[in-house]
Amino acid sequence: MKYTIFSWNVNGIRAILKKGNLLDTIKKYQPDIICLQETKAKQGQAEIDLPNYQEIWSSAKRPGYSGTAIFSKIQPLSSFAGFTDNINISYNWEEDNYGSPLSEGRVLTAEYPEFYLVTVYTPNSKDDLSRLKLRELLWDPAFLQFLKELEKTKPVVVCGDFNAAHTEIDLARPKQNELNAGYTKEERQGINNLIDAGFADTFRLLHPKEQKYSWWSFRGGARVNNVGWRIDYFFISESLVKNLVNASIHDDIAGSDHCPVSIELEF
User: Fold this and answer.
1) Coil, helix or strand at residue 119
2) What span, in angstroms and rounded, lies between the C-alpha atoms of 214 and 247?
């Protein structure tokens, strides 16, 4: 059994459907599963002509904001949105100026025979770093605890927009961004903690020195000049490394400020 799984922050599913990029990509690559982040819509607000795919959605309470979705050719054994109850009650999830990250549709899980698949849209620390403490003290530790709890049952594949570049090779201008959102030491430590806990960065595992990016600012011709960041990832449990046959960044695909990333697993 081979799984081809794509992940893409589409920056608004209705907008990318109008452009045609999403359906064109799915028709070209025929992924078994595609995980989306920043859908900015609820199920039924976008007309999606994908009869072979089951749709699973986790939408934010706030209209036109955040949200995740999984489209799957393979019927999942189960699926659920958000964290488990014990994660929700183990942390002090106070609302900030943006609301509560628990009501923003940021986590969606589907269970398959060989693994759990989790897609995540990690909260952005914001230009003024006003959500950095949320990332460091709440979100990142809670998310890691959630993954480790799932892993007690079966291996985990986790993908999505982590809103952080891990090391210098993962962004075009590391020195200029050391104090900026997406490359602070706190955010990078969050990724270190994932890897230290046994989750392998699939792209870096197969392409240890390749410099490719998955996000570019809309400003200043960043994409044309390839001044980008790798902030979209697939991490897998150590036990799945033997099943990993491919990990790609599809930086030729337009339609969003992010491009899709993908992996193939063979069992």
Assistant:
1) strand
2) 13
3-state secondary structure of 29: helix
Residues 6+ away with beta carbon under 8 Å from 133: none
Among left, alpha and beta (phi > 0; psi -120 to 50; other), residue 246 is beta
* DSSP bridge partners of 92: none
Count Cα neighbours of 117 within 13 Å in the Cβ-side half-sphere: 30
CATH of the domain at 247: 3.60.10.10
Residue from 161, 170, 232, 251 carrying the catalytic annotation: 161
Range of the domain at 29: 2-266
- The total of structural domains in the chain comes to 1
Q: What residues contact 150, with CB distance under 8 A and at least 6 apart?
A: 109, 116, 118, 156
Q: Are 151 and 237 in contact (CB under 8 A)?
A: yes
Instruction: Let me know if 121 is a catalytic residue.
Output: yes
Q: Determine which one of 116, 121, 213, 233 is catalytic.
A: 121
pTM over 0.70: yes
- Give the type of residue at 43: Q
What pLDDT does 98 receive? 87
Q: Which DSSP string do the residues of 153-189 spell out, in sequence order? A: TS-EEEEEE-S---SGGGBS-TGGGTTSTTSSHHHHH
Our answer to whether residue 128 is catalytic in this structure is no
Determine the Cα–Cα distance for residues 122 and 143; give it in Å rounded to an integer. 9
pLDDT score of 96 more than 90: no
Tokens of 72: 């799957």
Helix (H) or strand (E) segment spanning residue 90:
helix 85-90
Sole residue written with tokens 């795919």: 53
- Looking at the chain, the whole-number percentage of residues with pLDDT higher than 70 is 100
